[in-house]
Amino acid sequence: MDLFKVFICEDESIVREGLRDMIPWEKYGFEFAGDAPDGEMALPMIRKIKPDVLITDITMPFMDGLSLAKTVTKELPDIKIIVISGYSDFEYARKAIQIGVEQYLLKPVTKTDMINVLEATRKKIIEENEQKDYVKLYEQEFKKFERMSHRAFFEKLVEGTMSVEQIYEEADKLHLNLSADEYNIVIFSIMDQDQTTYSGDASGVTDSLLNQFMQYPDYIIFRCNLFSYAVLIKGDGESLKRMEDKCVKMIREQCEMSSARLDWHVAVGVKTNRLSGLSSCYQDANRAFAYRHIFPTQHIFTSEQLKPEQYVQDEDEINKIDAGKFDPMIIRYFVQTGTINEIGTFTDEYMQSLEGSVHSILFRYYLLVSIRVNVELALKESGVTPEQISDLLPTFDMNTAAEEVRSYLRDILTVAINLRDTEAQKRGNDIIDNAVKYINEHYSDEDISLDSVAEEINISANYLSALFSNKVGLSFVEYITRKRMARAKILLRNTSKRSGEIANEIGYKDPRYFSFVFKKNQGCTPSQYRNGEIEES
Fold first, then answer.
1. Peptide bond into 108 cis (omega under 30)
2. Dihedral sign, CA of 351, 357, 360, 361?
3. Are 475 and 468 in contact (CB under 8 A)?
4. 483-493 b/e with 16+ CB inside 10 Å = b?
5. Distance of CA 247 to CAs 234, 239, 244, 474, 489, Å?
6. Which residues, listed in sequence order, are joined to residue 8 by a DSSP beta bridge?
7. How confident is the model at residue 217 (pLDDT cuts 50, 70, 90)?
8. What is the pLDDT of the chain when averaged over all its residues?
9. At what angle do helices 39-49 and 65-75 cross, to 10 degrees?
10. Tell me, what's the pLDDT at 97?
11. Tens digits of residue pLDDT in 77-105
12. pLDDT greater at residue 115 or residue 108
């Protein structure tokens, strides 16, 4: 049994010693931690001991009990204060209540009175501690997984479709603090080198990173798509740069420390001092991020690298590339991992890297064949059928002019990525159908989790989390909770089962935590709902 510390402050030594000696403290769940004859002497001792309960007289020399209580509650807001006094004047009691005093006892205090008060106080401390634990557990469960409301908000934020007033209003609803002097955005993705989205190596590193980022209030994380995240960084001139560097360092260290073979990329935007500038900031970061397809072995990109002069590297620089140095895997990699929004940037930079080479008919034909072959290979790896590839991909001929190559590349990539995404959507629907079916059958299991469901349907937990939020519109935990609450309401209204039995039946080990979650979600306690005090909306 946990013992709660008690401190006594009383100027009358007989009373102080009597209180100290007449209560068998441990029997009632307390530990006597110290005493003092007045508030002035008590205060430094209380600051050091940090007791759970303070028993104090009102009238004392140097610092009276009410002044002591007022000071202590500011520094230790959870402390419970029991005031004892020889005065029955209501004014003292009124002031004590205003300060937040737990109990008010008149002298002489009997052993029975004090024990009754201590037991009531202990019960309240335990209940409050349980509530804190429940709040912490509840927040951990929901914070671990992305909430769609957050993602929708950040999508609108970086699209630039909200006014500053709307941004603050929406952020306030989501309890997001966006106040800062300056902002920047970092985009990152971590994938396994074989590009298999179902492997757990990249997922594990990503999860570890997300948990790290959540420890810092100046980092706000949101998902860009199934495989990439953005970090909104807040700060001022010096701190912002420091937090940017720290963000990139955390990603690099996590990826380099992993024993897995990972493809990881990071892009840093251009800082802005306005919330309304975050849309441009995100676009800057996204353009830089697109360069991972041109330089797949490079890990970190900044907007400065968008300037052509930054690409002068060595004798093998990409703008001197010829047929012998041309790497066809760049195209295949882009079809596997690129997005529709990145096609323009990729096409422009890819063609710029070839410069005058496309004016050679032989090289141009080789290039067109290579583009077509590698697009087809990438699509086959993504599960697209040969019939779809043959029917839908645009063709070319020997007469394709040099100036038409760019358009052909853009067109074939657009069709390819749409085909890839359509196929991925079909697979995603099948995955979610299987996941939802399994959850609907097992939501009442105490140990059901994202990991256990992912293992059951043989995909990574991180991929399932992203796919689930995207397809269902709720996070995994939100969906499970809704299922459990719906079943609980049926049982409450249609059976005579006790709350504890219902909790156990729907997957909660702790009946009190079930009551906490029910009230959090339904706005009333299970008993209030059962009694019809809250009607269905």
1. yes
2. negative
3. yes
4. bbbebbbebbe
5. 12, 12, 5, 28, 44
6. 35, 55
7. confident
8. 84
9. 20
10. 67
11. 889 998 888 766 556 666 766 666 777 78
12. 115
Tens of pLDDT, residue by residue over 341-364, are 889 888 988 888 777 778 878 788
Both tokens of 511, joined, read 């009946």
pLDDT reported for residue 311: 39
Q: What share of the chain is helix, strand, coil (3-state, %, to 5)?
A: 60, 10, 30
Runs of H (alpha helix) within 144-260: 148-159, 164-173, 201-213, 237-257
Q: Report residue 6: phi and psi, to 5°.
A: -120, 135
Q: Are 231 and 247 in contact (CB under 8 A)?
A: yes
The pair of structure tokens assigned to 157 is 């934020």
- What's this model's pTM, rounded to 2 decimal places? 0.62
Segment 132-148 shows an average pLDDT of 72
Residue pair 432/471 in contact (Cβ under 8 Å)? The answer is yes
- Work out the number of other CB atoms within 10 angstroms of the CB of residue 532: 9
Domains of the chain: 4-142 (3.40.50.2300), 147-300 (3.30.70.270), 312-428 (no CATH), 478-530 (1.10.10.60)
| Alpha helices (runs of H) in 443-522, residue ranges in sequence order | 450-457, 461-472, 476-494, 499-505, 511-522
| DSSP track, 27-54 | GGTEEEEEEESSHHHHHHHHHHH--SEE
> Are residues 53 and 82 in contact, defined by beta-carbon separation less than 8 angstroms?
yes
Rounded to whole angstroms, the Cα distance separating 357 from 336 reads: 26
Identify whether the C-beta of residue 255 lies closer than 8 Å to the C-beta of residue 201: no
- C-alpha span between 34 and 24 (Å, rounded): 15
**Strand ranges (E), 352-431:** none
Pick the range with the lowest mean pLDDT from 126-135, 223-232, 254-263, 319-328. Answer: 319-328
Q: Which pair of structure tokens corresponds to residue 113? A: 């009175």
Q: CA-CA distance, 444 to 422, in Å (whole number)?
A: 34
Q: Report the amino acid identity of residue 446.
A: E
